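thought: fold this chain, then report.
action: predict
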Amino acid sequence: MKIVKKVAIVLLLVFIALQFYRPKKNQSNGNHSAQFLTETNPPPDIKVLLQQTCYDCHSNNTEYPWYNNIAPVSYWLANHIKDGKKHLNFSDWERYSLKKKDHKLEEIVEMVEAGEMPLNEYTWTHEEAKLSDEQRKAVVMWANQTRALYQLSRQPK
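observation:
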């Protein structure tokens, strides 16, 4: 048997084996972003944008697409979600200090203004997550207003 054929068979066997060993899914029960929404009080349109564009990678509850059941895509998505939650997790908002909350909102402003969020890889398969210029401006304005409230509450009295 030629070496190419042997390599192809091994790769096929590895691909099949991967289908039985999937990464743990990022799913939780309850309202995983209640504290964030209560505290930051986004307007209804911003709330919907955050749900459509951010929560899958930046909360403890991801709505998975059908293709997540196929390895190695499942591993790739799990890595993206893990990385996203490392940078910002709306489900952990209550654990953040005021300074950290302010900083996270500042990062949201920077990433949205730069067009770095949501990721292109996400918007390829989630058409509703593509933000228009007006939506970007609205998210930035809301985040900046919320930051101002955090900064006020951090000032000594």
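thought: worth noting. The first helix runs from residue 3 to 18.
final: tokens above.
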